[in-house]
Amino acid sequence: MRLPQPPNPAPDEPLLQSSATTTPPPDPAVLAAGKTVYNQLCFACHQPTGLGIPGAFPPLKDSDWISAPNPERLVRVILHGLTGPIQVNGTPYNGMMPGHAPTLNDEEIAAVLTHLRHEWGSGASPVDPTSVKIIREKEANRTAPWTLQELEQLPPAPANVTAN
Ligand code: HEC
Question: Which regions are flagged for Pro residues bias (predicted)?
Answer without folding.
Answer: 1-12
